[in-house]
Amino acid sequence: MNGIPSATQADRAVYAASAPVRVFQPDVDSLLAPLDSVERILGHALAAYGDSLLRLMAVVSPYNQSVCFHRGGGYVFIALNHYLGRDYAGYAGRFPAYMLHRKDLRRLPSDVMETVMASVSPEQIRPGATFLNRMLYSGALAYCVLQTMPEGTPESVVLGLTDSQWQWCVDNEERLWRSLIERQLLYSSDPAVADRLLRPAPASPLLGPSAPGQAACFIGLRVVQAFAGKYSGKATPGYNHNTTRVMANNDNNRQFSRNKPTHKPLFDTGGRIPPHDKDVEEAVLGALMLEKDAYPTVCDIIKPETFYEPVNQKIYEAIQTLGAAQSPIDMLTVTEQLRANGTIN
Q1: Residue 4 φ then ψ, to 5°
Q2: Shortest CA distance to 68 belongs to which of 112, 2, 108, 15?
Q3: Does this model's pTM top 0.90?
Q4: Which sign, positive or negative, has the C-alpha torsion 216, 220, 226, 229?
Q5: Consecutive H or E run containing 70
Q6: Which residue, 87, 264, 281, 330, shows the most beta carbons closer than 10 Å to its own?
């Protein structure tokens, strides 16, 4: 990582004399040196991402933003004074307590990649976008960042959760799903719901009294991981960052179908067409056929009428039949069950 690019001697003198540099630079030099391990991780991440033109610039910044990406020049500015550790005295009173664990140097590589990917493939919040759309974008972004990290990188670090928060989410995944479904949050188009559940916060009271902030981001990541057929942070062989860009935007940019419903909806909508997304329904069904432990986790929550598309209802009914018989659930067995049900020839 280098210093400020294209700066004159006078510019550098002004920067060096600025208050943030005077305050933070000595601590940056003493607390963060050396940065060899971080630079190796960043080198690995950028190689996996496939963009060798990005230039990383280490700075001391007076702003709250820890990483800034200038796409025009390919510069990524990294404010090292944001990674001095949660117990750093200079953060007291400046940042809320629930944000301090993010000031760990382990977060720096994933912060860099998240900033770059979110800039290249920004979230496009269309009119009527549901919370589910936005949660899946969050999950896809975290998944793509995770693919660039070295094997063994904790998923909690990428999501910005503490180890205890991550473990709570793992232990209470079914409870989180129940809260999302029973409180009818998945198809909420209220932007405030997404802001409260997806942005950093001390807690997620909408999901339960003990749910940590951004617990919904954990669910978003799990959905994308299930769809991809893995729950590990291991990089995908033959990884290509162009595929990443498609993934990060795909589910987020869909327009909802407005066809007349032909079945009873899960929730009473007062005669209105319920929000739905065919691609999301297919992603859920795909996850159930790819991940062997997925169906027992959701069988008490998801019902055939949960799906809007009649064909997806039939597929889920076939999955239910296999699950009740404790038979394997995969593409082949589901197809055979659909034949046995008379759904397909």
Answers
A1: -65, 130
A2: 112
A3: no
A4: negative
A5: strand 67-70
A6: 281
